[in-house]
Design goal:
Layout lengths: L6 E10 L2 E10 L2 E6 L10 E4 L4 E4 L1 E6 L12 H10 L2 E6 L11 H14 L3 E4 L1 E2 L8 H7 L4 E4 L13 H14 L2 E5 L3 H13 L5 H7 L2 H18 L2 E4 L5 H12 L4 E5 L8 H7 L12 H12 L5 E2 L31 H13 L3 H15 L17 E11 L18 E11 L2 E5 L30
Parallel strand pairs: 1-4, 1-5, 6-7, 7-8, 9-10, 10-11, 11-12, 12-13, 13-14
Antiparallel strand pairs: 1-2, 2-3, 5-15, 15-16, 16-17
Helix pairs in contact: 4-7, 5-6, 7-8
């Protein structure tokens, strides 16, 4: 059954779709080859990890990341971004097409970004293509390049080179995507609602955190979602709604799915933990779009998670230099709208979901691994721990408390709304195809010896092409 030189992880509690199970894992050539209650024999050439007392999760698949390279590497890049993702338990991520310059809207730009990622990514990666007005003829080639899907903004994206789609452009793009079997992901906020409200508030000199939240109400999400759902129904397109901030949005999407629309929905850790009161206290570091909501929305979203209405969680890591998060006059409308969260997503889910609200670990694993793997055609190679799957694993001391410090963050600009917060659930190691891609450097880490340092000497992430249905 076994060749010499396998990796054996002994004594851990494995998180599976049906629950948790104490088991040993045997890994060969980057793949899980066996999972049993106990392996009684071992070769002298086997490498072993004693995971007694630890939980083993499948690697997090973060389908919503902005690493901004090439073109805006001073905001973030593949090296620092993927180091941070690995430290957060992520083994596969999908990079969004905007914020890099030029944005990924044709074959040449896709190939350019892929070449950069191949040289620098510490973890496996996929690339979204962009859907903007005027590039529908490029979508077929982007799909042939291996794009994981196409991303469209239904409101201002914040950068001049990635314009929002109008209804005609979205319809045309979704019609082509349907023929290709590709997913279209939409940032669903109504441009005309947010524009009118923003103009009205600014004309009154209202620029606070509460005013910003009021300028982008839940109804603006619902209006845009309704249009996207209607086009998906008419074209047969596979639709993915990103960063839903409200349970009302989630419930509307689930109703459409039950009516036959092929649609999924993502939310983010910040919507499951932070509120508009945090935006008031912290300022620009907690600004995002859609904005943070009230405490009632946080709790309603968790109820939707419990009910299985939310499909995936993505970090929506949207970094920028610190100067872009500040305005000398305290005008929240002027600062960059994006939260840096590549490294903390799993920790937020464990603290807010498992520890504080008793959400089962298998539910959280579905959101972070199984469901995104299935939605984007990676399952069962990714997204689960089973014989035949990639050995993408996260070793976690589930009850260990720790407090996030600025110096703990590996991404380029270490600002976060979670600095100073205490979490339970310490990520001790992340394995990509059986090889350590992150090892927590703390002296007390019981598995510290599996790596020479926090990260490998050279990145070895691989490109994961999209698989249209």
């Amino acid at each position: 059954m076994r060749d010499e030189g396998d990796l054996v992880i002994r004594g851990g509690t494995v998180v599976l779709p049906e629950g948790t199970r104490r088991a040993d894992l045997r890994i060969r050539h980057g793949t899980v080859v066996a999972m049993e209650s106990q392996f009684t024999q071992a070769s002298t050439l086997d490498r072993e990890i004693d995971a007694t007392g630890l939980y083993i999760f499948p690697g997090f698949i973060d389908a919503h990341v902005h690493l901004n390279e090439p073109g805006r590497a001073d905001w973030e890049g593949f090296t620092t971004g993927t180091m941070s993702l690995a430290a957060g338990g992520v083994t596969t991520f999908f990079d969004m097409p905007l914020n890099s310059t030029p944005p990924v809207t044709d074959r040449a730009r896709f190939d350019q970004k892929r070449r950069v990622a191949e040289a620098k990514s510490f973890i496996d990666y996929g690339l979204w293509g962009g859907l903007i007005p005027g590039n529908t003829e490029e979508l077929t080639e982007l799909s042939q390049c291996g794009a994981i899907g196409f991303k469209a903004f239904m409101t201002d994206a914040g950068t001049n080179d990635f314009p929002a789609v109008d209804n005609d452009s979205l319809w045309a793009g979704m019609d082509i995507a349907a023929r290709l079997g590709a997913v279209v992901a939409v940032h669903a906020e109504s441009s005309w609602i947010t524009r009118r409200l923003t103009e009205s508030l600014l004309s009154q000199g209202r620029v606070s955190a509460r005013d910003y939240e009021a300028s982008r109400p839940v109804v603006s999400e619902l209006e845009a979602v309704e249009r996207a759902l209607a086009i998906a129904r008419l074209t047969g397109c596979r639709l993915h709604v990103v960063h839903a901030s409200s349970a009302d949005v989630v419930r509307r999407i689930r109703a459409a799915r039950e009516a036959g629309v092929d649609v999924s929905v993502e939310t983010c850790p910040h919507y499951l933990s932070l509120t508009v009161a945090d935006l008031e206290e912290l300022g620009g570091v907690a600004k995002c779009a859609p904005p943070l909501r009230g405490r009632d929305e946080v709790e309603a979203l968790w109820q939707a998670v419990r009910a299985g209405l939310v499909d995936t969680v993505g970090s929506d890591h949207s970094p920028c230099p610190p100067s872009m998060k500040e305005d000398p006059k305290g005008n929240l409308f002027r600062v960059w709208g994006g939260i840096s969260g590549a490294q903390t997503a799993l920790n937020v889910l464990l603290e807010e979901g498992y520890h504080r609200r008793g959400v089962p670990l298998e539910t959280l694993t579905a959101l972070t691994a199984t469901n995104p793997a299935k939605r984007f055609g990676l399952y069962p190679r990714k997204g689960t721990i089973a014989p035949g799957s990639d050995a993408d694993l996260v070793l976690v001391d589930l009850d260990a408390p720790w407090t996030l410090r600025q110096e703990d963050l590996y991404y380029r600009h270490p600002h976060s709304p979670f600095i100073g917060r205490t979490f339970r659930g310490k990520i001790l190691a992340t394995l990509l195809r059986g090889q350590p891609v992150y090892v927590d450097p703390s002296p007390a880490n019981p598995v510290k010896g599996i790596g020479a340092g926090p990260f490998p000497d050279k990145p070895f992430g691989q490109f994961i092409p999209g698989k249209p249905s």
